[in-house]
Amino acid sequence: MLKKSLLASIVLGLLVAAEPAMAQGGNYRPAGGGNQLRFRVGNFEPDGESEYWDSTFFDFTGSPSSFEDAVVGIDFIHWLGPHLGLIASGNGYETDTVQTYRDFEDASGRDIRHTTRFEVASGTVGLILQFAGRKAAIQPYIGGGGGFYDWTLEERGDFIDFGSDALVIFSDTFFTDGTAFGTFFLAGVSVPVGDSWSVFAEARWDSADDELTGDFQGLGDLDLAGRQIAAGISWRF
After folding, report:
1. Alpha-carbon distances of 64 from 42, 61, 223, rounded to whole Å
2. What is the C-alpha separation between 13 and 2, in angstroms, rounded?
3. Distances from the Cα of 82 to the Cα of 39, 136, 151, 198, angstroms
4. How many Å apart are CA 124 and CA 103, to the nearest integer?
5. Torsion angle defined by CA atoms of residues 44, 96, 120 and 66, in that order, rounded to the nearest 10 degrees
6. Using an 8 Å Cβ cutoff, are 112 and 60 in contact?
7. Where are the domains of the chain?
């Protein structure tokens, strides 16, 4: 809750800062273009702080770092002025992690394992504030906003039927998905390598959660939040 309040405050502050530029109609057209297209790739690690993750890491091996994997993204920025712009982003993350029961083995002493597949794809909009001018050799920036987070959760493999006296081991697939609203905050630095091109590195924090349904009905909320570190290339036009 504290994290969401902080992100909401940042977004509100950026919106207040954007009001003068928006009042001018957003007709800023600098030399080199008022739009920017960015491609990035990086690493995403879930926070793993909800009821589902607590239960999962209690019963099975692994931790949030076990679900760390690649993330790719694309951003479109429309600059409202020399320092402030509107940013629309798309992000995609997917991972497959093998987990085993911590306290149980089969009759042969082997691990009872399954594969957990976790996917999150988001579409967000927000504001980005660049502190230095376009001619600066190093251009730090921050941003924030909100959007929708589409997610999929699947567990496929061997499980124990704790409702049976013999603790029968069975094979099955459990699946659910959904869409939730969330917020994000980012901070980074961009380095120009020409009139239109630049390279950048940034950290991004996403905050979202959703109630589990489908085969996971009754297991509480699923935390979609996490942090990513990414780098990429940008084209201004």
Report:
1. 17, 11, 11
2. 17
3. 21, 12, 36, 16
4. 41
5. -40
6. no
7. 2-236
- Asked if residue 175 lies in contact with residue 228, where contact means CB atoms within 8 angstroms, the answer is no
CA distance 185 to 167: 46
Q: How far is CA 207 from CA 145, 173, 220, 227, in A?
A: 11, 28, 17, 9
> pLDDT by residue for the chain (237 residues), tens digit each?
434 444 444 444 444 444 444 444 455 555 556 999 999 999 999 999 999 999 999 999 999 999 999 999 999 999 999 999 999 999 999 999 999 999 999 999 999 999 999 999 999 999 999 999 888 999 999 999 999 999 999 999 999 999 998 999 999 999 999 999 999 999 999 999 988 999 999 999 999 999 999 999 999 999 999 999 999 999 999
Protein fold of 2-236: Porin (2.40.160)
Q: Which of 140, 144, 120 is nearest to 130 (CA)?
A: 140
Per-residue tokens: 63: 């931790």
Q: Which tokens in the block code for residue 75?
A: 């951003």
| Cβ neighbours for 149, distance < 8 A, ≥ 6 positions apart | 120, 121, 122, 179, 180, 181, 182, 206, 208, 210, 224
Bridge-partner residues for 212, per DSSP? none
Residues contacting 156, CB < 8 A, separation 6+: 114, 115, 117, 172, 173, 174
